[in-house]
User: What shape does this take?
Amino acid sequence: MADMNLLKRAMGDLEEDAVLRIVKEVAGSGGGEAGAAMEACQDGMKMVGDRFEAGEYFIGDLIFAGEIMINALEIIKPFLSAGDSGGKGKMILCTVQGDLHDIGKNIVKSMLEAAGFDVLDLGIDVSPETVLETAKAEGVRIIALSGVLTLALDAMKDVVDIFKSAGLRDSVKIIIGGNPVTKEACAKLGADEWAHSPQKTVNVCSAWAAGA
Ligand code: B12
Assistant: This one.
């Protein structure tokens, strides 16, 4: 059994060698603990964020933390199973306008693809207009919005609102996710669902694709 507390601390302390050693251990023993390892890395990223806020870490540390996380994910991603993988059609995924964070979005993307979605990844800092135009052009019914800045909640609301203004709100399902997203924020900004875990995202989107 890999030590998830050690993994979390190593991530928080930016000890790349230790992080990679532990995730390789997880992969080497069949990947059964891949989900727990991803959560431990995510908790470590929270430590990084807290230390940044406290003035102990600087931008360079955030960048380095992002690189460590990406490298760790490369190793455990193949083991993050998403269940069945039938063709589930197209959906849109992006990080909303003003937000450049994409590590969480990319994890969610891998899981959705593994579950059989054709994910149109519009990237980062994506305007509401781009989401609307792509949904219209591609006939997409499911939209997943990612954001980790507090400001991302306003940008997510802008996406919901542009669909309302276009008279298309009822034609799409919108799920939001990322650090600042909560049940309350979801209700307030008028999205259909919210999630922190990629697994919940896959479950919700799969139910929508099946017509729920
Ligand atoms: C790495 C990092 C960066 C990297 C990002 C690299 C990259 N390619 O993404 C860099 C260095 C670029 C960066 C920049 C900045 N950052 Co930064 N960053 C972080 C950090 C440490 C980790 C984020 C992360 O990757 N977490 C790991 C992933 C896996 O977690 P996640 O994103 O939450 O995703 C998971 C779930 O939320 C969910 N999920 C994610 N997306 C979606 C989408 C859907 C639809 C669903 C359902 C689920 C879902 O699934 C994922 C997997 O489980 C956070 C700290 C933190 N607590 O998050 C700060 C943090 C987000 N950053 C912060 C800040 C302030 C900044 C800067 C403004 C700094 C600056 N002064 O320039 C800039 C902002 C630039 C911008 N406009 O976006 C603040 C935000 C404060 C706030 N409340 O708004 C934080 C919280 C740090 C802090 N505590 O102060 N950052």
About this structure: The pocket of cobalamin is lined by residues 42, 45-46, 48-50, 52-53, 59, 62-63, 65-66, 69, 98-105, 107-108, 144-146, 148-150, 175-179, 195-198, 201 (CB under 6 Å).
